[in-house]
Amino acid sequence: MSLVAFAMNGLLAVLLIAALAFGWRLERRLKALRDSHEGFAKAVKDLDQAAARAEQGLADLRAATDEAAETLAVRIERAQALAAQLDERIGRPAPAPRSDREPPPVRGRREPEPAQSAAERRLKAEDFERLLDREARLPPGARPILGAPAAPQETPRSRARIDDDLFDGPGEPPRPGSSSRARR
Question: For the whole model, what pTM was predicted?
């Protein structure tokens, strides 16, 4: 073999080794690209599922909003009807005043029987003095005002009942076992 043939075979061997090295590097890069492509495909699939869940959530939210709007509209209508009733009741004229002859009713006291005469119905001086002494012993806030009805004491529970009645229709009695605050 000649030196030229030997040099050409050596050059060819070096080029083949270089091609093998480039092929091996290219194969590693292609493998990394395939792996990233699989990861990208998985990420796209997860994103698609998340978008489908978000669409379902939006549909559920729209349905809940529509239901809440309908419920609120019904409650507003009931409140307006009750407000109109209240205005009507407030606007009514006051009952006619009592005659001067008829004394205002006193709480806790029985009406005299009709068989008694006017003289028997009058208080004796001692009875009147006992009544004044008893009133003087009462604290200032506990003294009853004559002619004014005693206002019932308002508690948080009675206030809640009043608030619940605002949303019940005028002809609808509350249903047993139901609560207006149960649905939220």
Answer: 0.34
